[in-house]
Amino acid sequence: MPKNWSKLVLVILAIFVINSITPFHASAASLETTGAVKNEYTYEEAVFLSGSPVIFKGTSKDIKITQKESKGKLTEMYSMKLTGNNGATLTRNIAYESDVVDYASIGQKTSNGEVKKYTEKITIGSITYSLVDYQFSQGTVTDNRAASDYYSGNVISRKTYAYETGKGKNAVQNTITIETDSRHAGYENFWGATETQITESVYSFSDGKTSHVKNRVSTSKSRILNYEENLGTLGSFEGGYAVVSEKDVISEYTYNLASGQKGTLDLDTEYMPTIERLIIPKFRDLTNHYAKEAIEKLYSLGIYSDSSNFFSPKTPMKRIDFTTAIGKAVDLRVFEEKKSRKAPTTSVFKDLKRSTKDYFYIESALNKGIIKGVSADYFMPDGAITRAQAATIFVRALGLENRAPNPGFLTKFTDDNQIPNFARDGIYIANELGLMIGDSAGRFNPNKPLSRAEASVVLERFLKYLEDDLKQNYRDDILFFN
After folding, report:
1. Is the separation of the CB atoms in 362 and 323 below 8 Å?
2. DSSP 190-233
3. φ, ψ for residue 226 (rounded to 5)?
4. What span, in angstroms and rounded, lies between the C-alpha atoms of 16 and 115?
5. How confident is the model at residue 115 (pLDDT cuts 50, 70, 90)?
6. Average pLDDT, the chain
């Protein structure tokens, strides 16, 4: 394993200012299965055609990778000129086209495609390998949830290269066919994105020999929140938060070649980090409070927008405030309608005016299936959010309610009989994920209101799950166990 993988397991809460940037828009999957790593300037990949691994490199002036989507067609194009050791060269021009189908009613998309154009030549020493045939098929399914998009897919391909050994009358025409089976999985949300791909390739030579290469490559984007003390001791504030955005790529090849060579080869790279300072919280009623750090983080991120210097941590968290915080935490796209004759004039709930601050977060959360009212017509916005309601909202936002056992199951809590039916799945999943746990007596206390401090602590756990836990699952768990 590359020595830096273990360092990547621990990532601090990765977060950013909600109103200052747009979310990640990574492609659903890496169509290429070369195991390449790249950043904004450099590109590297390993080639095993010659019986020894050869690393080819290029810079931004040597490569061009573009992607465009139009009318349900997604086209990804690669054009590159790379160089390796001892004058080795690689030129490649490949285009992939996929049909993207949006199943909006169930919140899913599929992408299924094939290679449309290819040319490739690789020269190593005195031998030039020309790609004479490239068969390729890929399929990816994406489940678009409010808090995160999850996707998984497969790529199968067959490449055939022709090359000549010997000279003149002794020249021999040869071929190498590479059959590839690749799997990929990933997620993308406002706080980060990780994609991991595992590719197994079998090289069949025209003389009957074979080589085997396995590649594992993972790309991850994250945002790390750091507290920065004020260098001036007489300033108006002691310190504040800064967010560092990072992206890295790690790749490992394991090879057993027809030449008899065996081994592993590691490639990795990082993008230039970026940093942004956040607004400074100045609450006066949080000194030595257990939830102080969580509250100040949420305020700095814009998830809370309190204008008062007093947070009132012991007061109950209102349903409207909790729902708004969830909406901002998952970056719900909220757009107020332009005033027109066709704009709706009635609220989605009878006890909530459309003119209410943050109304559109409530409307969006309802449309996304994150929340429901206390009845079909009433939301009770100023009512206290209960632990059962909070757990349900978390799990609906993640889209994981179907991961609960079959109906009729019991939770492990001693007050299981007090859990409302609507919240049973949510409480089970929220506890399994570590988002919400019971008290020292084993009770969940489903009908107990959450204070503003308690709600802040579980909201911070929710954000950590979106980055830390998902990243570990989609990078480390896949890399170490596959």
Report:
1. yes
2. TTEEEEEEEEEEEEEETTS-EEEEEEEEEEEEEEEEEEEE-S-T
3. -120, 140
4. 37
5. very high
6. 89
Please give the C-alpha separations between residue 129 and each of 79, 91, 200, 419, in angstroms, as whole numbers. Answer: 17, 11, 21, 66
Judge whether 75 and 96 are in contact, CB under 8 Å: yes
pLDDT per residue as tens digits for the range 167-226: 888 889 999 999 999 999 999 998 889 999 999 999 999 999 999 999 999 999 988 888
Helix or strand holding residue 129 (H, E): strand 127-144
pLDDT digits (tens, 9 = 90+) for 16-56: 333 333 333 334 445 689 999 999 999 999 999 999 999 99
CB 322 within 8 A of CB 385: yes
d(CA 147, CA 462): 10
Tell me the C-alpha distance between 215 and 328, whole Å: 38
Name the amino acid, one letter, at 241: Y
The two three-digit tokens of residue 132, written as one number: 């004479």
Structure tokens at 114: 């094939």
Query: In the structure encoding, which two tokens stand for residue 37, read together?
Result: 């790593």
Q: Measured between alpha carbons, how far is 346 from 199 in angstroms, rounded to an integer?
A: 53
Residue with tokens 């808090």: 147
d(CA 145, CA 138) in angstroms, rounded, equals: 23
Q: Quick check: 217 and 233 in contact, CB under 8 A?
A: no
**Residue 75 to residues 14, 187, 193, 226, Cα–Cα distance (Å):** 31, 21, 21, 39
Q: Which of 187, 159, 158, 184 is nearest to 31 (CA)?
A: 184
Fill in the DSSP letter of residue 466.
I
- Which residues, at least 6 apart from 70, have a Cβ–Cβ distance to it below 8 Å? none
Model pLDDT, residue 343? 61
What is the DSSP annotation of 43-62? EEEEE-TTSS-EEEEEETTT
Provide the 8-state DSSP code for 281: P
User: What would the two tokens of residue 218 be?
Assistant: 């993972």
Helix (H, G, I), strand (E, B) or coil at 238: coil
Q: Residue 309 has which token pair? A: 């210097």
> What is each CA distance from 265 to 48, 100, 330, 482, in whole angstroms?
11, 35, 38, 17
- 195 vs 376: CA distance, rounded Å: 40
First to last CA, the chain: 12
How buried is residue 249: exposed, middle or buried, by Cβ count under 10 Å (0-12/13-18/19+)?
buried
Question: At residue 8, what are phi and psi to the nearest 5 degrees?
Answer: -85, -10
Measuring CA to CA, how many Å separate 224 from each of 86, 239, 467, 469?
41, 17, 10, 14
List of residues 6+ apart from 338 with CB closer than 8 A: none
pTM of the model: 0.86
Contacts of 340 (CB under 8 A, 6+ apart): none
Owner of token pair 């299936």: 369
Three-class DSSP category at 410: coil
The C-alpha atoms of residue 35 and residue 182 are separated, in whole angstroms, by 11
